[in-house]
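Regression test case RT-17, inverse folding.

Input:
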């Protein structure tokens, strides 16, 4: 199970965000109680006035190596569970995120 879905203009990445962390980092894939996978991410920013949303967008862009302008929070702006839109060619983005997850050895379900 992968924490994203393909869209016509890119991919939608499901993220569980932890603000106020000691560093900005993508820690792997987790599975929610309802069985849906999501990317676990932590940012130093506070969840105030969109700071954590901006930080997670920047973090995902840097982690994937895509332009910062191509990543934005598309839903869940006030929730820990968010969906981020990554604009680009879906096939290339899919391969990119799969490689990143495989490099972190976090493609198996249930990792915490």
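Golden output:
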């Amino acid at each position: 199970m992968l924490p994203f879905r393909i869209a016509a203009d890119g991919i939608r990445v499901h993220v569980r965000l932890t603000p106020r962390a000691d560093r900005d980092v993508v820690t792997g894939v987790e599975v929610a109680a309802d069985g849906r996978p999501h990317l676990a991410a932590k940012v130093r920013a506070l969840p105030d006035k969109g700071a954590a949303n901006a930080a997670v967008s920047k973090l995902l862009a840097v982690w994937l190596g895509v332009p910062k302008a191509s990543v934005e929070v598309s839903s869940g702006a006030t929730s820990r569970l968010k969906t981020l839109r990554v604009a680009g060619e879906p096939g290339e983005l899919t391969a990119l995120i799969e490689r990143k997850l495989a490099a972190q050895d976090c493609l198996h379900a249930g990792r915490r």
